[in-house]
Specification:
Layout: H1 7-19, H2 24-37, E1 59-66, E2 71-78, H3 81-94, H4 99-104, H5 109-112, H6 115-118, H7 121-148
Antiparallel strand pairs: 1-2
Helix pairs in contact: 1-3, 2-3, 3-7
């Protein structure tokens, strides 16, 4: 699936996709399907400095900045399939976006689709930790761009 031009547009697309499902079980199955499509992270990156703390499951997240396009590319993985699906949503929203756009667009779609109500408190905290890590890494890359300018 091709990524929307902006994070706001991607959030709208995700909301539309989740509207197709009537019950929570179908929505969770869709999240799991998204996780199955997530490319695995190379084991060399599954190290302590890349871990996202605050997640029940193990989650690793890395970021690379492409200065030629001024975008941050994220890769992430987890040992839990539902968490991989949540990562897939986060990647759709934020990977390959300018750091400034990432920082200006909090993930409102999770509330829109009711994901907060579907997840256990531990999973919801983990999702918040992943988003915080993405935004922290984007902020680091935004500073790098400003210093290099």
């Amino acid at each position: 699936m091709e990524q929307a031009q902006t994070i706001a547009e991607e959030q709208e697309l995700l909301a539309e996709e989740f509207e197709l499902f009537d019950d929570v079980r179908d929505k969770i199955e869709y999240v799991i399907d998204l996780g199955k499509k997530l490319p695995p992270l190379d084991d060399a990156h599954k190290i302590e400095p890349n871990k996202v703390h605050g997640c029940q499951s193990q989650v690793w997240l890395i970021a690379d900045h492409d200065p030629s396009r001024n975008v941050v590319h994220f890769q992430a993985d987890s040992d839990a399939i539902i968490v991989r699906g949540l990562i897939g949503i986060v990647m759709r929203l934020y990977s390959d976006r300018p750091p400034e756009e990432i920082l200006q667009n909090p993930p409102t779609v999770f509330e829109t689709i009711g994901l907060g109500r579907m997840l256990t408190p531990g999973r919801a905290n983990g999702l918040a930790s992943m988003v915080k890590r993405v935004r922290d890494l984007a902020a680091q890359h935004a500073k790098t761009v400003q210093v290099g300018a």
